[in-house]
Design a protein that fits this description.
homodimer, 333 residues, Quinone Oxidoreductase, Chain A, domain 1, Rossmann fold, 6-stranded parallel sheet, 11 helices
Chain lengths: 333, 333
């Protein structure tokens, strides 16, 4: 039996929950969970914010632990190895996306916490190719957030061919944004953080931003017209997107990794006049996660975390709901 | 004196208008206008639809003719040579865009018909690097529409690295769309036309589409989920963009070359879930126009035009306003 914490209704408190995962499938890995980050999307799923969910839900998709056992067909992972598991716990393995290594874009991918039990548990299972080995040199206590927040902000750098010297801004300096600033600085970009408070401004600079702009000051944003090659928006609230679009250079891109529920009201002239793009992406492929982990080791990038014990999961969730986390809550065994 | 046709007020009839262009500048070319296409944006400018314009306005930015004279600094064009002039009649030549050959993205570019007199005239002047030589093998009577409509739909193929075999759809089979279908077919793409009428369906197939979809049939569009790498929208009316976004494959792009006045209400989940993009562009650089003209010769691509004499310019404009043109009205000397 796997001992987990589950929500039994929308917005419900998490309670102890045991389930029998059945026989380990040949392509599966069972992970002893040591750490699990809490992501805003765990809350969205607990709350049925993206549509009605099926309960019980075991959240947790920033899992770090050791391989406890492997199915008979698993060859690339060994018992005892340090591994991580993110948003996806399996893929169809036969669509065009999977065939070309873009497993994260597979329409049949299995989310770790919807229709599958996640990492707020002593153990979690996942398909072998969704489980990524963690290289030496990464502190496991800080590794969880890399598997969702980290890869979510790392993917656009690869996908959109961002180069050293490019001017990149980040909206929202939280769980995703604080990693984005570190990645972009190490990538050699000129990094700007849009922040809403004086205290966050100093923190953003210490995390790798070269400049900050006050996200509540329309004049200041106006003055930054045609400045950025890329803006990564990590927030899940509606902003004046036209104002931000205007800060993009010709061919610039406003890229959403935060799930804003309100439709984006985009002025098509702003796109046409300077050949701008608006786009979005979620997480990344297993290959991208591997690249990110190597980059993290090379540049000594560290998530900033607030640790909570698994027993205090509801307290930990309340802390995430408060919006005051610096910068990611991680449950620790 | 240059003899032109000008609008003297918003939505006004065009009337004869003479102006003195002054001394020919060293970097300027004077073109004897033989043909000039009429683009929907000529009407938008005449009508002050994009903001209040300064009158008189001499429309016309799909100019084809012969070089009448060249300034002392012009070396790449000779008197008597066949040339074309599109949306831009000059560039700043010193910004980062101009320096890298992206003159069409220059914020200081001079539109041919705003703050400058266009091609509904016996002559028109423009900066030498906005005037492009027309290679042998192109029928000058059909060449005008290439310089705005043509390059507008050709540019995305280069910019977004579209390849033979890619699946591309076109929304709106008019002045821009009928050239897009021909370009895409010759490019080796699998081409789909979204059309609203049975008669247009047959025409779209004859222009190069391999498939058609009824743009008024939501079920038919729904069934095309995850089909396209790129959709080029040439229309200037609001459609159900969410429906169209859904027809894009992962990493697909909905690209606007038609100036829709209403904001695009884009669902960010649709972007994030499949890493989709929404973007826009206008016309193209002089280098892109040259590439397009070579491609037109190679593949024997021809605009389909309805000719009118310059004297009947108001009748010609009325024809464009009717929305019934097959597919581009061209004024001929």
């Amino acid at each position: 039996m796997i001992k987990a914490y589950a929500a039994f209704e929308a917005k419900g408190e998490l309670k102890p929950f045991e389930y029998d995962p059945g026989e380990l499938q040949s392509n599966e890995v069972e992970i002893d969970v040591h750490y699990c980050g809490i992501c805003h999307s765990d809350l969205s799923v607990i709350d049925s914010e993206w549509g009605q969910m099926q309960y019980p839900i075991v959240p947790g998709h920033e899992v770090v632990g050791k391989v406890a056992s492997v199915g008979s067909g698993v060859s690339h992972l060994k018992v005892g190895q340090s591994v991580g598991l993110g948003w996806h716990a399996g893929y169809c393995n036969s669509c065009a996306c999977c065939e070309s290594g873009d497993n994260n874009l597979c329409a049949g991918a299995q989310p770790t916490i919807m229709g599958h039990h996640g990492g707020f548990a002593d153990k979690v299972r996942a398909a072998e190719n969704s489980v990524v080995a963690i290289p030496d040199g990464i502190d496991l206590a800080l590794a969880g957030p890399l598997f969702c927040a980290g890869v979510t902000v790392f993917t656009p750098l690869l996908e959109f061919d961002i180069k050293a010297g490019d001017k990149v801004a980040v909206i929202g300096i939280g769980g995703l944004g604080h990693l984005a600033l570190q990645f972009l600085n190490a990538w050699g970009c000129e990094v700007t953080a849009f922040t809403s408070s004086e205290s966050k401004k100093q923190e953003a600079l210490s995390l790798g931003a070269h400049h900050t702009l006050d996200s509540r000051n329309a004049d200041e944003i106006d003055n930054a017209a045609a400045s950025f090659d890329l803006i990564i928006s990590t927030v899940n609230v509606k902003l004046d997107w036209g104002l931000y679009l205007n800060t993009l250079k010709p061919r610039g891109r406003l890229h959403f990794v935060g799930a804003v529920l309100e439709p984006l009201d985009i002025n098509v002239f702003s796109l046409i006049s300077a050949q701008r793009s608006v786009s979005g992406s979620a997480v990344g492929s297993p290959a991208t996660i591997e690249k990110m982990l190597d980059f993290v080791v090379q540049h000594n990038i560290k998530a900033v975390v607030e640790p909570f014990s698994f027993e205090n999961v509801n307290e930990a969730i309340a802390r995430v709901r408060s919006g005051k986390t610096h910068y990611r809550v991680v449950l620790a065994k």
